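Before the break, one more example. Copy the sequence into your notebook; we will annotate it together after we see the structure.
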Amino acid sequence: MTQEYQLNESQLKKLLDAGKSTPCIMVGGYVPATPQENANRAWGELGKELGFQPMTVKPVPGKPMKFFTAQPVEYDAADTYDTEHHTGGLNPT
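Here is what the structure looks like once it is written out:
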């Protein structure tokens, strides 16, 4: 079952900024995160903050981009949400 969410202005700015490309100098073979990886990470952080599964996010037609639907995360206090891998699942601690 999906639920509708609304981002506040600072959350929306953080998400939009995460998807921007940034210039970088590659040193020692280190490859920085892509804009897509940064956006996925930002969705994961928002999912943890607001309690939704980031890989289930969908826009709400006819509404501004700060509105979206997603499946809520339901977990026990002993579980933690896996924001690192964005699987939408739970990992026991």
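Residues 2 and 71 are 4 Å apart (CA to CA). The chain is about 30% helix and 15% strand. Try to locate both features in your own notes.
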